[in-house]
Write a structure and sequence with these properties.
eight-stranded parallel beta sheet; TIM Barrel; 10% strand; globular; alpha/beta; 46% helix
């Protein structure tokens, strides 16, 4: 089965003291499923994966698999500095029931096609799961060209998907699809869903945005698949101001929005990046109120945007 649809990247919830909150993670998983997500991803950059210990990461992946119980497929984030560490994360994901393992083309290797090919070949040789190459821009990723991605895919048969996030996302998605051809099953868009209609028009399999607007993204994707392009574009236009704010505040906005939608009780963030001040939270409340009629699952709670 080829993966398609809206696959939100799940955040890692923390309590007010900064500890992982497993029960809140269950609510996030249930929110994604109830919103109709065709699948989900964990852990990724939006999950604050770089702040998790190996034990926390393993426990969360196991909990995700158990909670989903096969209701929707999940992509396990398996990125790590070495092939050995990547394979350990892949095996943990496979044991939890993951369908695919997503691995960033490491920024530390850079745009060296031969070295990147060797990295992915070492992983794929022993991987129990098919691989998705996440093409992130520098400095997190290597920002590979379409030709480099195609060279890796041709040499690594177990590499079946690409998640393309380098700018311009739409053009690069087109170039990767053309360069890779039948060597891969297809390309997903990322970049927070900010270019989703362009990506769908160029033949993407779907999108892997943050989770807080999963119901909108599912409706957008389904409308496009059903040929209702005008409705798909309407939903994109409605959501775009909030997605622009999300581009700045990332997991802070995700967690504030999930609190407003009754999913989270804490907005604690471990990761780096700008936090939202009182004016930012008021702006978020305004944008969410304008979106409220589009939320078909978990409507907004009647609370202000203050810190909690």
């Amino acid at each position: 089965m080829i993966l398609r649809g809206a696959f939100p990247v799940l955040p890692t919830p923390f309590d007010s003291e900064g500890a992982v909150d497993p029960q809140a993670f269950d609510r996030i998983i249930d929110f994604a499923v109830t919103c109709g997500a065709q699948g989900c991803v964990y852990p990724g950059v939006a999950s604050e994966v770089d702040t998790l210990s190996d034990d926390e990461r393993e426990a969360q992946v196991a909990r995700l698999g158990a909670r989903l119980a096969g209701r929707i497929p999940f992509v396990v984030g398996a990125s790590a500095p070495t092939p050995e560490a990547v394979l350990n994360h892949i095996r943990i994901g496979a044991a939890a029931g993951a369908a695919v393992a997503m691995v960033i083309a490491p920024g530390s290797i850079g745009r060296d096609a031969a070295a990147q090919t060797a990295f992915f070949a070492a992983i794929a040789k022993d991987s129990p799961l098919p691989i998705m190459l996440q093409n992130q821009p520098v400095p997190i990723g290597a920002g590979l060209s379409a030709e480099m991605v195609a060279e890796i895919a041709a040499a690594v048969p177990n590499l079946r998907y690409v998640k393309e996030e380098t700018l311009p996302c739409g053009q690069n998605l087109t170039l990767i699809r053309a360069a890779c051809g039948d060597a891969i099953d297809g390309v997903f868009g990322g970049a927070g869903g900010r270019y989703i209609t362009d990506e769908l028009a160029r033949g993407s399999l779907g999108t892997m945005p943050a989770v807080e607007f999963t119901d909108l993204h599912v409706r957008l994707f389904n409308a496009w698949q059903d040929g209702d392009i005008s409705e798909s574009r309407r939903l994109f236009m409605v959501a775009l101001p909030a997605l622009n704010l999300q581009a700045v505040f990332r997991m802070h906005m995700t967690k504030h929005t999930l609190m407003r939608r009754g999913v989270l009780g804490s907005v604690h963030v471990r990761g780096k990046g700008p936090a939202m001040d009182a004016e930012d939270r008021r702006e978020l409340d305004t944008l969410l109120s304008l979106l409220s009629d589009e939320f078909q699952t978990c409507p907004l709670n009647d609370v202000d945007g203050g810190e909690r």
